[in-house]
Amino acid sequence: MNLASLDLNLVVALRALLEERNVTRAGRRVGLSQPAMSASLSRLRRHFDDDLLSRVGGHYELTALGQVLLDRTSTACDLLERLFTSQADFDPAVEEREFTIVSSDYAVAVFGAELARTVHQEAPGIRLRFVQTPTGIVEQAGTLLSTTDGLFMPHGIISGFPATELYRDQWVFLVADDNPDVGERLTRADVARLPWVTYQRTYDAPAVRQLGMLGIEPKVEVSVDSFTVLPFLVAGTRRIALVQALLAERLRGVAPVRIMEAPYESVPLQEALWWHPVHTHDAAHMWLRETAARVGASVTGHDGEATEGQGIQPVDDPDPGDRSAEG
């Protein structure tokens, strides 16, 4: 396909037609008359050799190909918008822009909140929008990164995209204060026999891979798509939960639970900001990455070590190629 031979205005028209499923409304949406939009639909039908919109009774429905193109045109338009809003220069003190970042509630609480405070102080016209990490992140990483400004995600889940290192964390356990089955220290036997509350996503496997190597398979009793509610699902029960240490410290006191070290040397969690290569040389995005890296250093101190007073004990970094974690 020779892009030079294509009229990219048809991409905008295609998106409007597929989403509105009405020629008049689609034309009004993109500022074209009804005859002009009808002409665009005719050109699109010839190009794809498909009706795209089929009349059913008094309304139009998408054909099978039209349904396939619906998501693709949305992605394409978002990517084109980001491409053509790229800047050679960027002054955070005077610019106005919104950055959309995909993140779990853990990363927003531990890192995103501090990033937002820094941006508020240094770039009053910049807005941050955090959206929840979708369940199919592994399969959708390319599409997701092409239509957003970045993704907060630890190493070990996705790969093949550039990333800025942010901070290091580690895994600890939450246990109810009144859990009669756990003493002063959590043991491997406790981890194997007690019921679990887990953060459940399709990429959960890396977080428990180390347990599998130790011959331990968690007995999951409750799963939830939020890290911050884990203490409440542990409190008053025999359940235990694996959670990030920095988040556990920030949640200390919200529920009657104890924070306990893992009864094994857990693999560190290295959080990063991932982005699509289309953003690499954009001045605004470069500023975002530099600011994120600076904030990440303040969260855990230099070299990824946890700062004193946060209750986190540094762990010697194992083979950097074996970082199995989630976030």
Describe the structure concisely:
The protein has 327 residues and is of the alpha/beta class. 39% of the residues lie in helices and 20% in strands.
Number of distinct helices = 11
The outline comes out as: elongated
User: Pairing-aware structural class of the strands and helices?
Assistant: alpha/beta
- What is the H/E string? HHHEEHEHEHEEEHEHEHEHEEH
Strand content: 15-25%
| Alpha-carbon Rg, integer | 24 Å
The helix fraction, in percent, is 25-40%
Largest sheet: 5 strands, mixed
Mean pLDDT: 84
Strand order in the largest sheet = 4-3-5-12-6
| Beta-strand segment tally | 12
Commentary on this structure:
- The chain is α/β, with parallel strands linked by helices.
- Helices cover 39% and strands 20% of the residues.
- The protein is built from eleven helices and twelve strands.
- Strands 4-3-5-12-6 form a five-stranded mixed β-sheet. Strands 9-8-10-7-11 form a five-stranded mixed β-sheet. It has a two-stranded antiparallel sheet with strand order 1-2.
- α1 crosses α2 (23-30).
- It is elongated and about 75 Å long.
- The model is unreliable at 302-327 (pLDDT under 50).
Ordered list of secondary-structure elements with their pairings:
Elements: H1 9-20, H2 23-30, H3 34-48, E1 53-56, E2 59-62, H4 64-84, E3 97-103, H5 105-122, E4 126-132, H6 137-146, E5 150-154, E6 163-169, E7 171-176, H7 188-193, E8 195-199, H8 205-213, E9 219-224, H9 230-234, E10 240-244, H10 245-250, E11 257-260, E12 269-274, H11 283-300
Parallel strand pairs: 3-4, 3-5, 8-9, 8-10
Antiparallel strand pairs: 1-2, 5-12, 6-12, 7-10, 7-11
Helix pairs in contact: 1-2, 1-3, 1-4, 2-3, 5-11
